[in-house]
Design a protein that fits this description.
This protein is α+β, with helices and mostly antiparallel strands. It contains 14 helices and 11 strands.
Length: 395
């Protein structure tokens, strides 16, 4: 059997179809594309060509069917998603068009890679989608206010996701996933009674961080240090780089005396924090330093059995943090806790470094018995793997 991509007859039919389209003869183009597809039914570009010729011939319904076949070849193919929205719009199916445009917007390539015609189509998609979601939000305004007032943030997120203004993120731990724990981006403060005491010590902790940070090596180390045989992918720019560095206090369950002896007040404050103790996996605590104009890419953490606490120490303007669908600005001295198994990222767009005290805390929804089980299993798992802690690039 001749490969679909190298079949000379298919190539000839495709060339004739394109020539006919350029000559404003969509009917001939459609016939050639259909004959080519009979020989190569999995060719995405042929389905796109057939849809274009059908649309040019005025048969929007048939074109929509062909776009459906194109998306079966590649589910999130951006040009097909855009064309689907435009066809639905032409057919007067405005709600469906806005929804299709929304999917296209979520899967859009960088603007610099788009042709001018695609940029124009994308702009149209954004306008239609925004107009529809604004109208829908206005229609549901009273429900949003009532739901938020009565049921809290989850109800608000539910309606925003329905409208299309927000994505609902799930937990995606890279190693340890304990079932049944809720996916909460930023947790309420009252779940962690030790936050107030930690914040009360912020000035002393900041002073110790500055002192140990100023000392430099060996205290300050690149946070991302991948093994030589590991793929770097999105971490390539930060691997072995001091653009994102750390002064580790606890690392992989071991207290680093060389650093902690200079931070007695910080260590005393951390003693009040409900940190997990799971052999070589935790506790984990550090001063995280992000240099100017540095971004930590979107990623997820290792285990949903723990959460991550941030106490911002030095935060110039232009720094930000996103977890799931919510973006926050760090405020010096104001701690928060988030689920790092939900996609998150951080950035420092300022001209000055940013410093945050970071440590793990137990997920408060775990019972004492569950914590003991998790600690035992993690310890056994790590020992079985030669005593090395699993990689965890998290902030």
């Amino acid at each position: 059997m001749v490969n679909e991509t190298s079949n000379p007859r298919v190539a000839r039919l495709e060339e004739e179809a394109i020539t006919a389209l350029r000559a404003a003869d969509p009917h001939t183009a459609r016939e050639h594309f259909q004959r080519a597809l009979a020989l190569a039914p999995r060719r995405l570009d042929l389905w796109m060509g057939l849809a274009a010729s059908q649309r040019a011939a005025g048969d929007q319904v048939a074109a929509l069917t062909s776009i459906g076949s194109a998306l079966q070849c590649e589910r999130l193919f951006f040009p097909a998603l855009l064309m689907k929205g435009s066809l639905l719009e032409a057919l007067g199916r405005h709600a469906a068009a806005a929804s299709a445009y929304g999917v296209a917007i979520q899967n859009a390539p960088p603007p610099g890679t788009m042709s001018e015609s695609m940029k124009s189509a994308f702009s149209r998609a954004a306008d239609v989608h925004q107009a529809f979601t604004s109208s829908l939000a206005e229609a549901l305004e009273a429900d949003i206010e009532d739901a938020t007032r009565t049921f809290g943030k989850n109800a608000q997120v539910f309606i925003q996701a329905l409208i299309g203004n927000r994505r609902i993120y799930q937990q995606e731990p890279t190693r340890f996933h304990f079932p049944g724990l809720p996916a909460i981006e930023f947790w309420e403060r009252d779940e962690f009674p030790f936050l107030a005491d930690l914040e009360a010590n912020c000035e002393a902790i900041r002073a110790e961080a500055l002192a140990v940070w100023a000392d430099g090596s060996p205290h300050l180390t690149p946070y991302v240090h991948l093994p030589s045989d590991a793929p770097t992918d999105k971490w390539a720019r930060l691997n072995n780089s001091f653009n994102w560095s750390a002064v580790h206090l606890w690392r992989d369950g071991v207290m680093l005396d060389v650093n902690t002896r200079q931070c007695p007040l910080t260590m005393a404050a951390l003693e009040q924090v409900d940190m997990p103790r799971t052999s070589v996996c935790s506790p984990a605590a550090m001063f995280s330093i992000l240099r100017p104009h540095t971004r930590i890419p979107p990623h997820t953490g290792i285990a949903n059995t723990r959460l991550v606490l941030h106490l911002p120490l030095i935060v110039p303007e232009g720094c930000g943090f996103r977890c799931g669908g919510e973006t926050r600005r760090w405020r010096e001295g104001e701690a928060f806790v988030f689920d790092d198994t939900i996609e998150h990222e951080a950035w420092n767009d300022s001209d000055k470094p940013r410093a945050v005290l970071i440590c793990d805390v137990w997920n408060p929804r775990l019972s004492a018995q569950e914590r003991a089980l998790i600690a035992r299993v993690m310890t056994a798992f790590t020992r079985f793997n030669g005593g090395e802690a699993p990689l965890d690039w998290s902030e």
